[in-house]
Known about the structure:
By secondary structure, the protein is mainly α.
Amino acid sequence: xxxxxxxxxxxxxxxxxxxxxxxxxxxxxxxxxxxxxxxxxxxxxxxxxxxxxxxxxxxxxxxxxxxxxxxxxxxxxxxxxxxxxxxxxxxxxxxxxxxxxxxxxxxxxxxxxxxxxxxxxxxxxxxxxxxxxxxxxxxxxxxxxxxxxxxx
Length: 152
C-alpha cells in the first residue's frame, strides 16, 4: 500500500512539474511577442516620421508633379500609379515610393536626393539607363512631391 501511495505522490509531482514548465514557456513566449510588437511599433513610428517628412516636401505640388511625370514621358520606362499610360517595366515601378529606402539601390531615399536623381541621374550613377531629361529643380521638386504621395 505504501508503494502505491509513493507512486501516486510521485505522479502528482511529475504533473505539477510539467505544469510549471508549461507556465514558464508561456511566459517566455508572451514576453517575446510583446518585445517584438514593441520593436515593430518603433519601426512604424520611424516610418511614419519619414513619410510625414516626404509629404511636407517644401515647394512641391504633387498634382503638378503628376502632370510633369506624364509630360516628360516617365511612363515610357516606369509604372507610375495615376499617370496615364505609365505601365511599363523598362525601369523599376515607382509605386509606393514613400516606402522605399534607397534610390538607384544605394542612395538614401530623401526628398533632396530624389530631386538630384531626377535632374541628373548620371551624376549619381554614371552609366545608368535613366537619361538626363532636362528637368529643372522646381519641376523635379513637383515630381518628387507626387512620387512621395504614393504609398501613404
